[in-house]
Specification:
The protein is built from one helix and ten strands. With about 160 residues, it is mainly β. The protein has a single domain, classed as Porin, CATH 2.40.160.20. Strands 1-2-3-4-5-6-7-10 form an eight-stranded antiparallel beta barrel. A hairpin with a 2-residue loop joins strand 3 and strand 4. It is elongated. The mean pLDDT is about 90.
């Protein structure tokens, strides 16, 4: 009987010591698709909140989608930009090139449905993006020419700041 207790004790201690030897698994950020959420001033969303994700890894092709706008008293603008972008660079410093469309609704009265006009415009994006290789603060500065039915507005741009997760 004493032998059985000794064997059980050895099995228990071996199991406990094996569990203690395992190290926590680290996330391989180089293979995980980079995701970020950021606030943007200017750009196709005017004043917006956006989600951005790479299709694979830290750089290369990705997409963005956001909602934004600005209002004053009973007038306002609502924008919903979506687009594709490409990041080229290394060590968290990237050249960002992109294009997309933004749905825009302008209202000038108290009744949103009676006094509003909607349109869609295109945009291009050329800029610099700081995006850490792991989690952390992100920032962008860019020029974003707008392409509308009234023509091209080349000198439009913006700034953004957010977090990579």
């Amino acid at each position: 009987m004493k032998t059985i207790y000794v064997l059980l004790a050895l099995i228990c201690f071996t199991t406990v010591s094996q569990a203690q030897l395992r190290e926590p698994r680290e996330v391989d950020y180089s293979m995980k698709a980079a995701q970020s959420v950021y606030g943007e001033i200017g750009g196709p969303g005017i004043l917006s909140i956006n989600y951005d994700q790479r299709f694979k890894g830290q750089k290369g092709w990705g997409f963005r989608a956001g909602v934004g706008g600005i209002g004053f008293l009973t007038a306002g603008v609502f924008a919903a930009p979506v687009g594709l972008n490409y990041l080229s660079g290394k060590n968290g410093n990237y050249l960002e090139l992109g294009a997309g469309i933004s749905a825009l609704t302008v209202t000038d009265g108290e009744d949103f449905f009676d006094n509003s006009n909607s349109t869609i415009f295109g945009y291009l994006n050329f800029g610099y993006r700081y995006q850490p290789e792991k989690k952390g603060f992100t920032a962008r500065v860019f020029v974003s020419p707008l392409i509308t039915g009234a023509g091209v507005f080349p000198f439009y741009g913006g700034l953004s700041a957010g977090i990579r997760f």
